[in-house]
Specification:
By secondary structure, the chain is an alpha+beta fold. The protein has two domains: about 1-75; about 85-175, Glutaredoxin (3-Layer(aba) Sandwich), CATH 3.40.30.10. It contains seven helices and six strands. It has helices at about 15-30, 35-45, 50-60, 65-75, 95-110, 155-160, 170-175, and strands spanning about 1-5, 10-15, 85-90, 125-130, 140-145, 145-150. The strands form two sheets. A four-stranded mixed beta sheet has the order 4-3-5-6, with helices on one face. A two-stranded antiparallel ribbon has the order 1-2. Bound molecules: FE2/S2 (inorganic) cluster (FES).
Amino acid sequence: MSISSCTCGQDVTETELMTRLEEVIKENKDKAGGLIPALQMAQIIFGYLPDMVVDRIAEGFNKTITEVAGVISFYSFFTRNPRGKYLVRVCLGTACYVRGGKEVLEAIKKRLEIDVGETTEDRQFSLEVGRCFGACGMAPVVMVNDETYQRVKPARINEFIAQFATDEELVLEGEEK
Ligand code: FES
């Protein structure tokens, strides 16, 4: 069964991913503080931390699922939900908030029809919020993957999203503005 595509364009099977996970568990299970690196590697391998991965890591580290889930929820860089191709993070730090960050967030939520922490059905976009990306002078700021977008205007969110969208409907609606 093909469940994932890597950047080289080759499909990776679930069995291959699980084999890599087993290697990660083996490498880290006897190390002090090995759980977090193992979770990080697992998230890189799978793109997120699905239940079956969390279960297997808990077993491998001889911990309860609740313990492992507690560690995952403590660190914001872990996610138990699949992320989209584009991770959209809206800054809600003070400068961005007072300069319209909240309106930007609301416009993106409406445009993508998802809430914070969710991913669009086509797995193109995930939406999160941040607390200052170090570009306060250019607020409001949005990050999409590793790129920073400054002075984002709520009224122009359709165009903003359309530059990433491959979904025809999103592109067309963005072009209308
Ligand atoms: S508050 Fe948004 S970049 Fe600093």
